[in-house]
Amino acid sequence: MKILIVDDFSTMRRIIKNLLRDLGFTNTDEADDGNTALPMLRSGKYDFLVTDWNMPGMSGLDLLKEVRADENLKTLPVLMVTAEAKRDQIVAAAQAGVNGYVVKPFTAAVLKEKIEKIFERIQ
Amino acid sequence: MSESDKNQQGLDPEITDKLRSQAAELVEQVNAGEYGRAMTLINELSEVRDQSLYREVGRLTRSLHEAIRNFQIDPRNAEQSEALSKMTDASDRLEYVVQMTGKAANRTMDLVEEAMPRASAIRDEAAELRDEWQRLRRREMAPAEFRELYARIDTFFVSLNTDASAMYENLSEILLAQDFQDLTGQVIQKVTTLVKEVEEHLLSLVVMASHVDQMTGTVHELEEKEKVSAEQGVGPQIKAEEREDVVSGQDDVDDLLSSLGF
């Protein structure tokens, strides 16, 4: 299981990486923006994407749309972990095809639950 | 020469009085058929308007100059262009806050990552020792095994001592790493003060500009503000409980999504 973590703040990437490691996911990579993440996804054979929304270059929502529009990536499970909490946004993300939505600040338990739920649905 | 512009919402009473009396006289003259006199009056009215216009524009530009000087952003002033403008200074300060909080977060995480393996090692070893101890208590242990356990317990006490001390150190350092909050708090307060100052200046400038508009009879048609689309990020919400269009936690998010069938 190879996971890509995307967030423009390195402290958040570190936190998520640690939480994933505690859950047993040790094979993780990081990117600091949608723009750097997309080529990695296209060439990297990732099984799961965890992304923030607000990023300076390409936002998480735009990244999600690019992923869903790509023949080879459209089935990639995507979890959004973000401070964006407006109802309109949550709906927009769901309509764009996100598999899970976690708002910051979040707990380890919530992250675990959402990840497990996503994998349940796939299997 | 400086007048208290800030508190003056309406036009100068001097001007409005003059307008009123001249307008009254104009009506009189027109009604009396004194058209020559009426035209002269119209010229005089026009002059009053022009003079007040120049005065209002002068006030406006002077306030702008004062603001530029106050915020130290005059590009023509050699001294100022060397020093930072207050805005640039404020941006730098906020960047400093981002750096400091980032460093503190990483330092804290470093210390935690050091301590966690020690804690889980203690936990695991204690669990195993407990099992052995239970066996001993049930008299299920051979003497050779007991000697092993004896030594192992001894080793455990030594490493427990070392690890607990190290973790205590880490916890103290974590406490110290929180010292950023005082510094960043001070910096942010300074920037808040600056922002309020800018707002005040802008407001007084707007009042003066409205006087100019009144003088010239200008009506501005401002474009409707662009609506914020759902796709634009707006950052963390700080008053979620008070707003209806914002969720207040993960449970709300889950409810919203399941109510939509996701």
Describe the structure.
The complex is a heterodimer of chains A (123) and B (262). Chain A is α/β, with parallel strands linked by helices and 123 residues long. Chain A has a single domain (3-122), classed as Rossmann fold (3-Layer(aba) Sandwich), CATH 3.40.50.2300. Chain A is built from five helices and five strands; from the N terminus they run βαβαβαβαβα. A five-stranded parallel sheet of chain A has the order 2-1-3-4-5, with helices on both faces. In chain A, α4 (87-95) links the parallel β4 and β5 (100-103). The radius of gyration of chain A is 13 Å and the shape is globular. The model of chain A has no long low-confidence stretch (mean pLDDT 93). With 262 residues, chain B is an all-alpha fold. Chain B contains seven helices and no strands. Chain B is elongated and about 135 Å long. At the A-B interface, α1, α4 and β5 of A face α4 and α7 of B.
Provide keyphrases for this structure.
heterodimer; A: 123 residues; alpha/beta; Rossmann fold; five-stranded parallel beta sheet; 5 helices; 47% helix; 17% strand; globular; B: 262 residues; mainly alpha; 74% helix; elongated; disordered N terminus
